[in-house]
């Protein structure tokens, strides 16, 4: 099949592109190379994709000429592109245009594809709110602009399923870690601080926060398993993550154990909207996708440390 991936040079999008290409699909990536984080990392990811024969188109989903700029013979779309996180440097307009308007433009494009089998929206556990321990039937209570706009994007996509205009589903991902993780995220930052002998900015009260830290390879297992299950998952929201919880403190200790040194901490003010607990309820994913994440936190951290050492030391 011919598959389009938005946000293809990002963390999870790039891994998904590689996996789908390895499974024999023709993969085309789209990315706007947003300056939200290091272009160096994005170019590194892009090179990894192009070295494997994956085409990457530099294009912003918010552009008015989007429909005429992308191929029309696409069978599947995986929609990763978004304004991520809860950074103070991101404005509401950033979230609104990147997460809502861009998704609307992508849907306008998707509706003109004659052979499209499904559009897969990549959602987030942040949609649930400060605690994300629930099944997909639980009412969403997002506590950040990120969560609110990702919920809106998700509903725009699922609306098209309800209208019988195209098949779609949304996958809500939980605390993904591993090689290529964004530089402002916890594990990449911890690893960088350890090797550079700098202090890690630890948000007040966050050591007791609980997370379903899920290795990116396990997440990609769930994402690609949607293929050929269009009828089964059409219109569905599905959680993807591990059922195993770890505190932020346990995450810090895992990095220290793998690298073999203590990391200095700089205590900073807590972030508004930061989740207190995420624990993936994956009963639905097990039933519909035979989903079974297996990578332990320590195994995932080891792989991420090796990636960092290879590319940044």
What key phrases describe this protein's structure?
313 residues, alpha/beta, Rossmann fold, seven-stranded parallel beta sheet, 18% strand, globular
Helical amount among residues, as a percent range?
25-40%
Shape: globular
- The CATH architecture category of the domain at 2-173 and 214-242 and 280-293 equals 3-Layer(aba) Sandwich
Number of strands: 15
* CATH topology annotation of the domain at 2-173 and 214-242 and 280-293: Rossmann fold
Helix and strand topology:
Blueprint: E1 2-6, H1 11-22, E2 26-31, H2 39-50, E3 55-58, H3 66-69, E4 76-79, H4 92-110, E5 118-124, E6 131-132, H5 145-162, E7 168-173, E8 176-177, H6 186-196, E9 200-203, E10 210-211, E11 214-215, H7 216-224, H8 230-233, E12 237-240, E13 246-247, H9 248-259, E14 265-268, E15 277-278, H10 283-289, H11 297-312
Parallel strand pairs: 1-2, 1-4, 2-3, 4-5, 5-7, 6-15, 7-12, 8-11, 9-14
Antiparallel strand pairs: 10-13
Helix pairs in contact: 1-2, 1-7, 4-5, 6-9, 6-11, 9-11
How does this structure look, described?
The protein has a domain of 215 residues: Rossmann fold (3-Layer(aba) Sandwich), CATH 3.40.50.720. 40% of the residues lie in helices and 18% in strands. Strand 2, helix 2 and strand 3 form a beta-alpha-beta unit. Helix 1 crosses helix 7, helix 6 packs across helix 11 and helix 9 crosses helix 11. The radius of gyration is 19 Å and the shape is globular.
